[in-house]
Amino acid sequence: MAVGIFDSGLGGLTVLDAVSKRLPDVPFVYLGDNKHAPYGVRDADDVYNLTCGATERLWDAGCDLVILACNTASAAALRRMQESWIPRDKRVLGVFVPLIEALTERQWGDNSPPREVAVQHVALFATPATVRSRAFQRELAFRAIGVDVEAQACGGLVDAIEEGDMILAEALVRSHVDALKRKMPTPQAAILGCTHYPLMQEVFQDALGPEVAVYSQANLVAASLADYLDRHPNMHGSGQSAMFLTTGDPKRVSDHATQFLRRRIQFEPA
User: What's the predicted TM-score (pTM) here?
Assistant: First the structure.
């Protein structure tokens, strides 16, 4: 009954933590492609090929359902995977859907025409590849009109978080928020469009100000996954064991992951 969670590095641990608390009886297999992180500076074909390879590894581990907890993979690879690559008995889901559902206050299955929503000025903080893809804006446009999205590519932030350099990470967050505010002085909401970024959520909130609603994905994805598995119980895979897999150095990744979640995490070679 295992479910796979994939991220380019350690950021997806924020999603894993939330879904594990929401679904304590489900074994999750986490795969971090730390060897090739960060994905945010790679081109779309590279991200697609790496994401497909990681997804196949999770299928081999008994996970018929894989969550792409990497926004860059969701933005640059998921639609292409769903259209031409994923077998009929498997599912791969991204992390944009729950976020857009929350922002627009409408369910994904609601296919009525786009309509005005309460939030009209949205700041999107994401990796360069996610910003280039315009995937968030495209999906949002199917459901909402009149929403001004200003995207800020947060170069260097994932690298700093992966290295555990939180002093640099905080400085980068404040710099990127300043750059965003020069383009959109008064956003109503801010999207943390990378699963690494919730680790810096307090800094984002402080830099943006208390009047800005900051959306991060972990809890939204957890609630959405619980609902999906209720509706699709056949998507519980055959795997029975929780695992942490990495394409990087298991000891180094384990040490950083332990710092992230404040509990001992032991990674194995993927």
Answer: 0.88
